[in-house]
Design a protein that fits this description.
Layout (H helix, E strand, L loop, with lengths): L1 H20 L13 H104 L2 H13 L1
């Protein structure tokens, strides 16, 4: 019986010594298998799949709703532009009627059409200048040198 107590105390002191030395007392033994960890990981994977499916469904719904709203907005813009066009025509007709007693009907038409064409020309000129500015912003100095070198070589 004394031998059993000595063996037990030797085993306990060996475990304490190993713990103090930083060595695992179960170095050769495999760790116990925890099934709850596997269940947690499995649940996590299932939750991730569910989340991904829900996210895809949400994005599809959002895209469909956005598409419908873009279509409606585009329709409103088209109708607004049509109404604006009609208003400009009415304004031009009003100017012709207002100027007719002063410079005859043909003179009034010439003045209104001339002013409208001058305004159109000014807007086109401004658009072309803006287009040139945009082109200059994206033009590379190296591309210009290559083009100049090619012209000089010819």
């Amino acid at each position: 019986m004394l031998d059993q107590d000595n063996t037990a105390s030797d085993a306990a002191s060996g475990t304490e010594a190993a713990a103090r030395a930083g060595v695992d007392a179960h170095e050769g033994a495999s760790p116990p298998f925890d099934e709850s960890l596997v269940e947690e990981v499995s649940a996590l994977i299932d939750n991730a799949k569910t989340y991904a499916e829900a996210e895809v469904a949400f994005q599809k719904t959002r895209a469909a709703l956005t598409g419908a709203n873009v279509g409606a907005a585009l329709g409103f813009v088209i109708v607004a532009l049509i109404l604006l066009h009609i208003a400009i025509i009415a304004l031009a007709v009003g100017f012709v009627i207002a100027l007719a007693p002063l410079v005859t009907i043909w003179g009034a038409i010439a003045i209104v059409v001339g002013v409208l064409l001058a305004g159109t020309g000014g807007l086109i000129w401004a658009a072309v200048n803006r287009g040139k500015q945009i082109a200059e912003m994206f033009a590379s100095k190296d591309n210009d040198k290559v083009a100049e070198d090619a012209e000089e070589a010819q």
